[in-house]
Design a protein that fits this description.
Length: about 300
Amino acid sequence: MQIETELSRFAASQPTLVTLGVFDGVHLGHQHLFGQLLELSRSRGLQPCVVTFTNHPLTVLKPEIRISYLCTPDERLELVRALGISHVVPLAFTHEVSQLTAKQFLLLLQRHLKMAGIVAGPDFAMGKDRQGDIPTLKALGAEMGFTLDVAEPRTANYEVISSTAIRRALEEGDLERARASLGRPFILTGPVVSGFQRGRDMGFPTANIAVPLNAALPKDGIYATRAIVEGGSYLSATSIGVRPTFGPGGERTVEVYILDFRGDLYGKTIKIEMIKRMRDELRFNSVQELIAQIEKDVAQVRAILG
């Protein structure tokens, strides 16, 4: 089976304490769970291990539903490892995996990862048709010889922190609410690709960022942002939208104007820290009106981010 091949690449050398999920965004709720995983692992002499599905199970179970992601699989692994968990196991969720019962999946984790215990949230369920809920896992633990610890969920603004709630905040343009749940600014990452160079013609050369097609995007509008380029951090203004001044039906794009930056950006990867939404995307009657508004936007970025 493909999952056996993937697990064998990350075979554990010592017994592990495992938590399992997609963990898209590695938000404060996930970090709370990982914190308990680390604490319990230390107290029991086990190696902490995070098993993450690189794609959301719904992409297999309900492919008609469009799933957007808060970060790429590589970014997710980087964020988890930065928390002090070195044993991270990325797995593809496939039709084959969806047909495994909870017990079959757990046997694989015991065989390849030497799983001695699981740490999970109260609503966690695994296995075919999500039959492996918390009561079932407790019974399986007694039968198969592993422990189960249930971590309470973490809340922000009286709402349980979840990737779904963060996506909803982004869709509403509420970066502050998204940041409160992520514990950091929301970030868009992608390489700079060629565009129409309209910004350069207007005196504000923008970089077109090719974000992944399945990336979660904030609501269309103009944002005060920070651009991270080759280790340097710059004030920037970012536009998300369809550029209505230049005609209807445009493709949705992400463009960033980096203040006080000189240099060639083509082909370079840029990280954009989304800080504050400044205004809606507007249609202007002339290019001159648009230039005047961009000048105001740049001044506002300096006032917000200083």
